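Hello,

I think I submitted the pyridoxal-5'-phosphate job twice by accident. Can you confirm which output corresponds to this input? Input:
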Amino acid sequence: MGIQLFKPTFRVDECLNEIRECLELGWTGLGFKTVEMEEKWKQYTGAGNAHFLNSATVGLHLAFKILKQECAWQDGDEVISTPITFVSTNHAVMYENLKVKFADVDQYLCLDPEDVEKKITDKTRAVLFVGLGGNTGQYYKIVDLCKKYNLKLILDAAHMSGSRVNGEIPGKDADVVVYSFQAVKNLPTADSGMICFKEKAYDEICRKLAWLGINKDTFARSRDKGAYKWKYDVEYIGYKYHGNSVIASMGLVQLKYLDMDNSYRRQLSAWYNESFKDYSDKIKPVPVAENCESSRHLYIIEVENRDELLLALNECEIYPGVHYRDNTEYDMYAYAKGTCPNAHRLSERVLSLPLHLQMTKDDVDFVAGNVIKYVR
Ligand SMILES: *Cc1c(COP(=O)(O)O)cnc(C)c1O
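Support: Only one job matched these inputs. Its output is below.
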């Protein structure tokens, strides 16, 4: 098998027990466990609103759909975003006929506030920040910029489940935060996500849009007394984006272990850092922002001959990954090619080393040893 980049860990019996409750009750859809997951997520993060969805991608889409609709943005209005991310992030902007304006990244591989400020025009409506690998980078400077220029702030927290800054879960300053519980994220289910709007009114619209525009969900209706269970209105051309109780069951179990799991991820990362500390001229671990306790979804190093190193590690049955290819290299975003030199340079040099809960210190030593052997 070798050492894989990601390998999710599930508490199988606990997950099955939660799922069994759904099956016995005969309720696997929206409501029941999805409501419980939303309540637990609000408690855990301190968010005022949370809606459980079938992915983070759809959550990001809803974020732009709702902000555009409610703030009267026009087609072609601009959202400043990062080229170092999974394509979902930027596609979500494009779904709504908005334009992605790429800004460069800093040493944390997150949006660089200085370049963001330079990219602001009179068409800019929002900034989309990605906490890469769980790192919060210079997020709070972006918060300040958004206040100063009256821009909306969307936080793509796909990697950030459980990340903290000064002991708190960040996101209160954002207009909307979107988490991913996809199969290999640090809070894995199978596919699901959570969207947390700051504004209650937007959360309410979001619940309708995620369920075909229907203004009363089936679970609420099932508890209605009287003969009007069937009578709902359809207020929007909505989507089928909501999550279900079987997947929420897995999320509920994973959430119980999230802090413990993340602290082991930080331990693995600390072992990597320790191994590389005498080779800082050749192997540069991407730093974590000061005061950030990262979820450590990723452990990323910067090296000179990344592609060769990747192949050499594959020879030893070590399977790292790359997060991410500069998005302006893709056809879809080629209009922005050359606008983010730091992102471009780093995207050729970064490598994500295996990091998952089934790894031991010996595994880290084995991976780190081979990285060191090759770069020397
Ligand atoms: C995985 C990921 C997403 C999309 O999450 P899904 O739940 O798979 O839709 C969005 N943004 C980033 C940065 C991601 O890594």
